[in-house]
Design a protein that fits this description.
Elements lengths: L2 E4 L2 E4 L4 H4 L7 E6 L3 H4 L16 H13 L4 E6 L15 H5 L1 H4 L27 E6 L10 H7 L4 E7 L1 H14 L3 E5 L3 E2 L3 H15 E4 L1 H10 L1
Parallel strand pairs: 3-4, 3-6, 4-5, 6-7, 6-8, 7-9
Antiparallel strand pairs: 1-2, 1-9
Amino acid sequence: MTHYYVYGERRAFPESPVFSAYLGREGTAVVSIDMHEGHLADAADCPCPAPRGRLIVEAVDRFHDAARALNVPVIHVSSSLRRSGIDDVRGLPAAWRITMPEYFGPIPGAPNHCLEGSRWTKLRTRIDPRDELVGNKKRLSAFYPTDLDFLLRQMGIRNIVFTGINTDCCVLNSCFEASNLGYRVIVPKDTTRGTNEELESASLAIISLFLGVVIDSEALLSRWRET
């Protein structure tokens, strides 16, 4: 029996057509968000550290490998900002640059976060020749101002499985936008991590109530293998 999560509670998955459509393999793509060195480097000068993201690199790679083996495409979305700074620090700054230091304290490397061509834009997770790359994310959503929606529609995708970081930031924003654009949203809870456990749990609860299906990656893979 397949299980999923509603507000953190593990439940049997509803076997109705409208729910079963979320677990179909055809018309599905995996979209991995911001698994790059700008968040994951274990270095003092890491521009915007997301240390909990390091905990899922292997799990994300395993899930992506299994998806590819089942002919489910994998798309890597990552942030990239012009070196001039006009996309952010010299233009209208992203809100997180103003608000996050109020809780976390100064973020010394933040001006270098994901500058194009820098080592901080290098993906930590594996890239396969079959994968697609979307590398011009500039704010929290994987859709803004990228061509992700165009790419997905060209591929005939209806279901998006989100992996990556942070659950409470870019993943949550991307889930909202994907749902608003008419995609079915699926988030394997073991392939995403949040700023902390509290925010991660809250974000997964929000996703499960309003945006889509929260599930374990192996449960999703098992359903894919059946189709």
